[in-house]
Specification:
By secondary structure, the protein is mainly beta. It contains one helix and 16 strands. The protein has one domain: monomeric porin ompg (Porin). 43% of the residues are buried.
């Protein structure tokens, strides 16, 4: 259950972005991470549809759909994320929509072809999830994340994330309210074993604050290490399909937690000149 709560908090933190290629070389997999956000905005004229499904050992799960669009070029990007959540509640289960995220990202340094790239993201989290069923925070949240991507060599890339989420007047299942502030750090190593097959190791730490009563909060820390793989199918019309699978494992304060993550993205041009 804790991993599902963390994923609801940081769901917009792992969008996939653009792909690079030359006329002679089919596009590889440059981004498409699962839990860590890479610092590459969408290429002009290219849209991406991202599906992610995470199921914990206790039966709870979260599915997210993200769609990303370039805004007047690669410098600016808009996207949204819609989560669907199933939580195990005593004495039963509940399924519903979580808090919808509206994301804006600015390509501050570099781009998808640079050795170093930075692309800060600002997100508004809408209170669309029912806090009584633990689907959402119960209030409008503000989130900020800074991804840094560094190409170490032709076969190794690393990505680092740091961010936070602030929710004024968040609610718990009893309707009690309090301001909450949560923080996230992340790191990943991507081994490009083949241009269209990558081995991944992602690490995510979160400090999550939750409402414990009126004007009272409690804080919990989580740490997950997630090995995984991803691969790509390229088509002549410019479509790239990237499936992937990972196995997040809890460490430290979340030792014993086990999950499976399934990923599927579709990326294609939406203009003739893309």
């Amino acid at each position: 259950m804790m991993f599902i709560a963390v994923m609801l908090l940081t769901a917009p933190c792992a969008p996939a972005q653009s792909q690079t290629s030359s006329p002679q070389t089919p596009p590889g997999i440059q981004d498409n991470s699962f839990l860590i956000e890479e610092a590459y905005n969408q290429d002009p004229g290219v849209v991406q549809h991202i599906n992610s499904f995470i199921r914990s050992r206790d039966g709870s799960w979260v599915y997210t759909f993200t769609q990303e669009w370039p805004l007047f070029g690669q410098k600016n990007q808009l996207s949204y994320t819609i989560p669907v959540v199933k939580v195990e509640l005593l004495p039963g289960v509940a399924t519903g929509i979580g808090d919808i995220a509206i994301n804006y990202r600015y390509q501050l340094v570099g781009n998808s072809e640079s050795r170093v790239a930075v692309a800060p993201r600002f997100t508004i989290l809408l209170p669309s999830g029912d806090a009584r069923e633990q689907f959402g925070a119960g209030g409008t949240g503000l989130q900020f994340n800074v991804p840094l991507s560094v190409v170490i060599s032709k076969s190794l890339v690393t990505h680092l994330n740091a961010g936070g989420t602030f929710t004024p007047a968040a609610k718990n299942a009893l309707g009690e309210k309090s301001d909450t502030a949560s923080y996230n750090l992340g790191h990943s190593l991507i081994w490009i074993a083949r241009p269209r097959f990558n081995v991944m190791l992602e690490t995510v730490w979160n400090s999550v604050e939750a409402v414990a009563g009126t004007n009272k909060t409690e804080r919990a820390q989580t740490l997950f290490i997630s090995p995984g793989v991803r691969w790509a199918y390229n088509f002549k019309n410019g479509l790239q399909i990237v499936p992937g699978v990972a196995f997040p494992v809890g460490a430290g304060p979340t030792s014993g937690s086990r999950s499976i993550l399934l990923y599927l993205s579709f990326e294609h041009p939406f203009t003739k000149h893309a």
